[in-house]
Amino acid sequence: MQHTPDLGKNALGKPDPWARFRGLAWWQLVLSLLPILLLPVGGAIGGAIGGAGLIANLALARKPFGTPVKVPAMLGVVLASYLGYLLVVGLLYNMLEG
Protein backbone atom coordinates (compact mmCIF):
# COMPACT_ATOMS: atom_id res chain seq x y z
CA MET A 1 0.00 0.00 0.00
CA GLN A 2 1.43 3.36 -1.05
CA HIS A 3 1.52 6.19 1.47
CA THR A 4 -0.01 9.41 0.12
CA PRO A 5 1.40 12.67 1.49
CA ASP A 6 -0.79 15.04 3.44
CA LEU A 7 -1.18 18.12 1.23
CA GLY A 8 -2.22 20.17 4.24
CA LYS A 9 1.30 19.98 5.74
CA ASN A 10 4.73 20.82 4.38
CA ALA A 11 7.96 18.88 4.94
CA LEU A 12 8.46 20.42 8.38
CA GLY A 13 4.96 19.50 9.53
CA LYS A 14 3.72 23.09 9.38
CA PRO A 15 0.42 23.98 7.69
CA ASP A 16 0.78 24.54 3.95
CA PRO A 17 -0.84 27.87 2.98
CA TRP A 18 -0.99 26.84 -0.68
CA ALA A 19 -2.76 23.50 -0.14
CA ARG A 20 -6.13 24.91 -1.22
CA PHE A 21 -4.70 25.86 -4.62
CA ARG A 22 -2.92 22.58 -5.37
CA GLY A 23 -4.56 20.19 -7.79
CA LEU A 24 -6.86 22.73 -9.42
CA ALA A 25 -7.04 23.24 -13.18
CA TRP A 26 -5.67 26.51 -14.57
CA TRP A 27 -9.15 27.88 -15.27
CA GLN A 28 -10.24 27.11 -11.71
CA LEU A 29 -7.23 29.03 -10.40
CA VAL A 30 -8.00 32.01 -12.65
CA LEU A 31 -11.66 32.13 -11.66
CA SER A 32 -10.76 31.67 -8.00
CA LEU A 33 -8.28 34.56 -8.03
CA LEU A 34 -10.42 37.05 -9.99
CA PRO A 35 -12.36 38.35 -6.95
CA ILE A 36 -9.15 39.17 -5.04
CA LEU A 37 -8.33 41.76 -7.71
CA LEU A 38 -10.71 44.01 -5.78
CA LEU A 39 -7.99 44.41 -3.14
CA PRO A 40 -5.83 47.00 -4.96
CA VAL A 41 -8.92 48.82 -6.22
CA GLY A 42 -11.02 48.83 -3.08
CA GLY A 43 -8.61 48.60 -0.17
CA ALA A 44 -10.02 46.94 2.94
CA ILE A 45 -13.59 46.81 1.64
CA GLY A 46 -12.51 45.36 -1.69
CA GLY A 47 -10.13 42.96 0.02
CA ALA A 48 -12.82 41.66 2.37
CA ILE A 49 -15.36 41.15 -0.40
CA GLY A 50 -12.70 39.74 -2.74
CA GLY A 51 -11.42 37.38 -0.05
CA ALA A 52 -14.93 36.07 0.53
CA GLY A 53 -15.30 35.53 -3.21
CA LEU A 54 -11.93 33.75 -3.36
CA ILE A 55 -12.92 31.36 -0.56
CA ALA A 56 -16.33 30.72 -2.16
CA ASN A 57 -14.75 29.95 -5.54
CA LEU A 58 -12.17 27.63 -3.99
CA ALA A 59 -15.00 25.75 -2.28
CA LEU A 60 -16.91 25.52 -5.58
CA ALA A 61 -13.79 24.31 -7.40
CA ARG A 62 -13.49 21.36 -4.99
CA LYS A 63 -17.14 20.29 -5.36
CA PRO A 64 -17.82 17.17 -7.45
CA PHE A 65 -19.85 19.06 -10.06
CA GLY A 66 -19.08 18.88 -13.75
CA THR A 67 -17.29 21.67 -15.61
CA PRO A 68 -20.51 22.97 -17.26
CA VAL A 69 -21.89 23.63 -13.77
CA LYS A 70 -18.72 24.92 -12.11
CA VAL A 71 -17.83 27.58 -14.69
CA PRO A 72 -21.11 29.56 -14.51
CA ALA A 73 -21.26 29.14 -10.74
CA MET A 74 -17.73 30.48 -10.29
CA LEU A 75 -18.39 33.31 -12.77
CA GLY A 76 -21.49 34.14 -10.74
CA VAL A 77 -19.39 34.44 -7.59
CA VAL A 78 -16.97 36.76 -9.43
CA LEU A 79 -19.85 38.90 -10.69
CA ALA A 80 -21.50 38.95 -7.26
CA SER A 81 -18.21 40.05 -5.68
CA TYR A 82 -17.80 42.99 -8.02
CA LEU A 83 -21.46 44.01 -7.81
CA GLY A 84 -21.39 43.64 -4.03
CA TYR A 85 -18.34 45.89 -3.87
CA LEU A 86 -20.03 48.52 -6.05
CA LEU A 87 -23.15 48.34 -3.88
CA VAL A 88 -21.26 48.75 -0.60
CA VAL A 89 -19.11 51.59 -1.93
CA GLY A 90 -22.15 53.32 -3.43
CA LEU A 91 -24.03 53.10 -0.15
CA LEU A 92 -21.06 54.41 1.82
CA TYR A 93 -20.60 57.26 -0.64
CA ASN A 94 -24.25 58.25 -0.36
CA MET A 95 -24.13 58.08 3.44
CA LEU A 96 -21.03 60.27 3.64
CA GLU A 97 -21.89 62.74 0.88
CA GLY A 98 -25.69 62.77 1.28
Can you give keywords for this protein?
mainly alpha, 3 helices
Overview of the structural elements:
With 98 residues, the chain is mostly helical. The chain has a domain at 35-97. 65% of the residues lie in helices and 0% in strands. It has three helices and no strands. Helix 1 packs across helix 2 (38-62) and helix 2 runs antiparallel to helix 3. The radius of gyration is 17 Å and the shape is flat. The model has no long low-confidence stretch (mean pLDDT 89).
For the record, give the distance between the C-alpha atoms at the N and C termini, rounded to a whole number. 68 Å
Q: Which structural category fits the helices and strands? A: mainly alpha
* Relative helix content: 55-70%
Shape: flat
Strand content: under 5%
- Radius of gyration (CA) equals 17 Å
Q: How many β-strands, per DSSP?
A: 0
Number of helices: 3
Topology:
Blueprint (H helix, E strand, L loop, with lengths): L25 H8 L4 H25 L4 H31 L1
Helix pairs in contact: 1-2, 2-3
